[in-house]
Amino acid sequence: MRANKFAFAFGIFAVVVGIIFDVFSLFLKLGTNDSATGILWGSIIIVVGLVFLSIDHSHIRYASLAVVGIGIFYYFLVQTHYNYITSIFVAVLIIAIIEFGLRYR
């Protein structure tokens, strides 16, 4: 029981840190590689937090995955020099893989 409480607390901590990291990186220098890399790391931290949370409610998980998807989209948008089609395709593919991993772990 104690391990489950620790995992839940760590999950909440990771999600909060990831969101703070995303917001800070977004306003650092909008549209630069540094901002995009920071947002990617914030999205990765949020995904790690979601794994530890083990949320059964799909609407909370989908809202968190939407934030992660927007972060991944922004990263690939900046890296591909604003190629929207490629960025959307890659973001949807990565979110689908993350959702598959969260659902069937």
TrEMBL record:
Transmembrane segments: 7-27, 39-55, 62-78, 84-102
Keywords, ordered alphabetically: Membrane, Transmembrane, Transmembrane helix
Protein name per its UniProtKB record: Uncharacterized protein
Species annotation: Lentilactobacillus curieae
